[in-house]
Amino acid sequence: MIMHPSKSLSPAEADAFGRELDALRQRVVADLGKRDVEHIRHVIRLVRYSEAGGRALLHLGVGPLTFALGVTALGASKILENMEVGHNVMHGQYDWTGDPALDSKRYEWDIVCDGDHWRHSHNFEHHTFTNILGRDRDIGYAFLRVSPLQRWRPLHVIQPIAAAVLALLFQWGVGLHDLHLDETATGSQPLAMLRRRAMPFLRKAGWQLGKDYVLFPVFAGWNAPRVALGNLLANGMRNLWAFAIIFCGHFPDGVQLYRQAETAGERRGDWYLRQLNGSANITGNRVFHLLSGHLSHQIEHHLFPDLPAARYPELAPHVREICTRYGQAYNTGSFAAQLGSVANQLIRNALPTAA
Amino acid sequence: MLAMVPPTIRQAHPVQRLHAAGSRLAATAWRRWFLDRHTEFWLRELGANWLVAEPRARVLEVIDETPDARTLVLDPGRRWPGHRAGQYVPIEIELDGVRVRRCYSISSGSSQPGARRIAITVRRVAGGRVSVALHRLRRGAFVGIGRPAGDFVLDSPVPPKLLLVGGGSGITPIMAIIRDLTARPTGGVDVIVIQGSRSRADAIFGHELASLATRFGWLTLHARRDDGPAGRLDAAGLRALVPDLANRETFVCGPPGLMDVVARAAGDAGALQRVHHERFTAPVPRVAGDGDPEPVTVDLVRTGTQVVAGGPGPLLTQLERAGLSPPYGCRMGICNSCRCRKQRGTVEDCATGVVSSEPDQEIRLCVSIARSDLELVL
User: Fold this and answer.
1) Which of A249, A275, B135, B175 is 20 to 30 A removed from B182 (C-alpha atoms)?
2) Distance between the two ends of chain B, CA-based, in angstroms?
């Protein structure tokens, strides 16, 4: 999509920009209450019931129709649990309630990624160093080249295929992310450190595999193969969806990357600007937004990661208005457009180009 | 629950190590990946409240004691550990999405583990969110309940001479002690009770105390009302009412003024060490002034140590300056890595200026400024 580049702001303008966003944030914080808690509790209820229903259809049903319905229900449940519940609760968006079931530090989600690893690599590293080359390991997940600013390596040629494989096995990519495998490959991370980092992942992955492919199939008796396959497909459904939504968040054309030197002495307003220009939104209807965990509002999420995500749609017009006044681009487009742009970037940058 | 594996397991037989590893995995799985998500949810959905990990109490009865004091008779659930008369219990209620906790003295007498009936008596405070919300509860409602605590209790054996002073809602733990004493009369005890209240209508348990005093000769009641003929009690008045104050074990609970009166009278009689007191009012937060915060004492609950934190900057920087290394991440209030529980004390949010003295509150150290002495779970 063609977008006018964001205006470069003076320090005073950046500060004013930051203050306006801070004020916007404060208004929402002061308004948080019952309706926010009710929302997340409704979603959790939806997740649990559709999981129970999906599993019941797989365990007790016969024939392809119940199988398809079961996989769909279970897949939808996993998608909502991953996107709207897990990601958002772990960000601390509902810590203010004091409800232990919504405690960001205690929540464990239904994928192979360990919660503590995620909290460290995502909440802290990704959201603090967003899009800074050499600091944000989410840029291409340390093996894909999504921008000409990244150095080209011969293996990048096969990256469209690598990306497709990652899409199918996305939860494993997420799970392995905090192990810093790329650093072990280049020799900068000693094996002992890798072993230490890997332990929580291996425990969580072991539990997930056991649950999905041993425990539940065993309970299904004669339906064991059906249940195992159903779990596999539901996991795959969730993987593909999460991959698509998440890749649209930072990799479409127009999203800005930063060099470390550029961000030295960054103030709060500059941080907001980097979050804004480093993210992209996806347009859609309410169901789409919910299923994406409101990561369709990646911009609002990066500006306010600890505000309940269900608030992002009502914040978006205000954010957009502030951006217009400060001459900042607001990167948004349809799912097809953004996904197409991401695919385009992956293919184009598979080949060496001048930075 | 499954026991933790001892550190010497490395030298153990491979089968034992496998078993130990399996136990650890099962414990983690149950605790974090299964219990959290599924079991709690379905137990609640199916209404099996007694099995739910978070203890809750059900309101059995609501009794109006005075125009603004109400007794809630509660079923504390099967895991109630029992309590001693005079102790308090934390009560948790959700207000506009936020769980808020307050401690209330248990006004019923001591209870055994597994008891299914206790009572708290709540005075509705003007502008008080929790007391107002508790007054709105009806039979069948649920509140969160914690473990009873407090040392405002009679020694065993019971001292022969007692002075029990309760002012306003401070009569609640006193009432619990009296109910215990009258339910299980111990021979040879001599009890003087002084109840202070604004008016006759405001005297919580006034009628019950009067009738108990009539029934039991060893129980003497002095009901003092602010609007009565003698007016509010002062130290001299107390010494006159209770000449043998020095020989009595004294328990006082009430407004600061009443506590001072008793302390002064006891001090004059040389009996200050025999006074037990229970405070209801929260510690007054220090003035949230501009500029660098004053040094504060921070109690670290996990390590049982205490540090003095001072100088400019948020709490995180102050604690680091005091030699600690709390976990941190972005240092800008975004990632929650530095989040910890403030059990008591007042903090100010760097960004918003909001000052909060709420107990048991999660705070982010990197954006909080200490405004009073604190108790942190660190």
Assistant:
1) B135
2) 25
